[in-house]
Specification:
345 residues; mainly beta; Porin; 14-stranded antiparallel barrel; 6 helices
């Protein structure tokens, strides 16, 4: 229990440190789940009933000691030439500490260059990248603590920034009850504007709480997660303002249930449905994504996500699809394998 209290003190110190600095720029490298399963369940998984090498890249509490030497490669086809590749490798445990190392690279695509006079110059590319080292330790049969340090950078032609930070995790798993609870602070770090107009300041962190529940006589599990809890009101300015009829000039009262809307903008919901020993199907829903990316009431399937996993020879394959708005969706593809399986006997 002393280790658990120490971890909570570390979390508090990280949050307090961010209140006294300027603000760096956000990056999808921290917000976008590279894992197809996490994406299909509505967002990165922070509480789970089982260990998982893919999810461990975002939460070291999921490092699987039975999968030492396994490699996961995940690719996300986002939008307009933007994509992300993530690689995670399970290291051999050292003492009581399980370990991993990995990297994530966000390709921001190609940009058209112009000089100060507005004349076109050569095109250039941009991207965000980071390397991380994560470790976790089981305190007892229920509680696991995790920590992950990262170093990274952003480059965009003559714009360059550097990152350094740490993430902290607390995870509890009650196997008999098929219940898991997770608490995490991710993306907490500092950005240095090294070149150009990149700002210097604290990176925006994400405070998350998650709950996962399975059932003895049902082939599915439910995943609930609340994120960005450091800020209650995530709605854009003017969301709850009354409108004015352009013809009659009458005030039209905003009928949105403010508390419910503010609450649900933090919440993602997912379901994992077992389809056999080697196959699983996932469904997810993100209320905030559905609400904020709605265009003139054209909801379509935005905010919904779906995915599956299956075995293909010596590879474990995952595919996910997340719908953002009527203009398109992102595709997530991941594989897991162990290089030792291909060694000559």
């Amino acid at each position: 229990m002393k280790s658990i209290r120490a971890t909570f003190l570390i979390l508090a110190a990280i949050l307090k440190a961010h209140t006294s600095h300027g603000q760096g720029q956000e990056s999808l490298v921290f917000e976008l789940s590279p894992d197809a399963r996490g994406a299909a369940l509505g967002g990165a998984v922070m509480a789970d009933l089982h260990s998982d090498v893919h999810s461990a890249g975002l939460n070291p509490c999921f490092i699987d000691t039975a999968r030492q030497g396994d490699i996961t490669i995940d690719y996300t086809d986002y939008f307009a030439g933007v994509g992300m590749t993530a690689v995670n490798y399970q290291l051999t445990a050292k003492g009581h500490w399980k370990r991993q190392i990995g990297s994530r690279f966000m390709d921001l695509g190609t940009f058209s260059g112009y000089d100060a006079a507005g004349n076109p110059t050569q095109d250039f590319r941009g991207g965000d990248q980071l390397v991380y080292f994560g470790s976790s330790r089981s305190i007892d049969s229920v509680w696991t603590l995790g920590v992950q340090g990262f170093i990274g950078s952003r480059h965009l032609n003559r714009e360059v920034a550097g990152w350094l930070g740490a993430e902290a995790f607390v995870h509890a798993r009650w196997t008999a009850r098929q219940l898991a609870l997770g608490l995490a602070v991710t993306g907490a770090g500092y950005q240095w504007g090294l070149k150009g107009s990149q700002p210097t300041g604290s990176l925006p962190y994400n405070l998350q709480v998650a709950l996962t529940k399975g059932f003895n006589n049902a082939p599915f599990r439910v995943f609930l997660k609340a994120q960005h809890l450091q800020t209650w009101d995530l709605a854009p300015p003017g969301t709850y303002d009354d409108a004015v009829d352009p013809i009659t000039q009458e005030v039209v009262e905003n009928s949105t249930f403010k508390f419910g809307d503010q609450l649900m903008r933090h919440v993602t919901i997912g379901t994992a449905l077992s389809a056999g020993e080697a196959m699983e199907i996932w469904f997810g829903f993100d209320y905030r994504r559905r609400t904020e990316l709605m265009a003139t009431d054209r909801l379509n399937g935005n905010g919904l996500s779906i995915g599956t996993q299956f075995e293909l020879g010596k590879f474990d394959v995952r595919i996910g699809r997340s719908r953002y708005h009527f203009a398109g969706a992102s595709t997530h593809i991941g594989i897991r394998f162990n290089p030792r399986q291909f060694a000559r006997s």
